[in-house]
Amino acid sequence: MGMTLMETKQCKSAVEVQDLSFDAAEKQALAQDWVAISMKQLSAGSYQGRIRQIDFENYRVVVEEQNQTIQKLGSMTDKYCTVSYAHIKEGGIRASEYRPDDNALFLMPGGTAFDVQILGNTEIVYFRFEQDYLMGQAQLLNPSAWAKMPEVPGPFDGVDRKPIEQAVSYLLHQYVAMQDSQSILGSKAIEQELHDLVLLALVSGRHHNNDRKPGLKARRLVASRMDKVKEYIDAAHDANQCPGIIDLCAQLNVSERTLQYSFTKHLGVSPLAYLKIHRLNQVRAQLINPINMSDGVTTIAMRWHFWHMGQFSQDYKKMFNELPSATLKRALS
Question: Where is the HTH araC/xylS-type domain (predicted)?
């Protein structure tokens, strides 16, 4: 199985713990059923993803990581918001036009769209709250600054994250590493302490949703341009078209050089490479979850405008470290 429930525990304080592993970015996205999200693998190689999740009464703690660079696209529901940070091992993160600092918490309000790129081996820790609940707590702590929820995603800088990181580390040790749930210690106390640490850090941070940071205005322009690119690519594929570089330049009314710069700055790949990666990911998603059980590799590949099957198989194997036939066989078994 590509998604494995490694462990689920029900503790004395009704805390549910899950440890899930994945062999495809698409499966990792499907496991997050509370948010509209798609995930694309951008770097080549076998995929290994993991989500550790702890549900408390008023919030959820999620620790997510994968060995490959991914792009996460989607939108938050109005009900939930998240507060997150990146624990960087070897990689890094871009959230829309922002590259959060090491001392920042990142707020993703409900009802907002997101485009997140996460380099391989970067651990993301996020806390999911019901937005009305978080607003009530934030207004209690800092009424003047939290008269309303920020309308756009953004970092809160100047935060001392060390106590939060220590509490999360303790949680993972107690709730995931230990085999005997009876030996879990201080569940209610750590639940309350982590809750307070996150909210106090958030309301004490400096929210940056303006253009004062160096380079932010330029990154915001690139991000806006890339949003239009994604919309156009999706619309073109829905119309059974296969857009190319000239199509993208025409749609955005930019030069080929500006297009190259935008893709490299935003995603770290050329537009030509991204177009192929996007189609390969779409093929993989349909091999994992075939629209029609009778569809073979060739049918699905041609649906995404791959016409040279030999070259397609080579490209697919280079990207995902397995032949497309192996992906489909596993899905049908």
Answer: 227-330
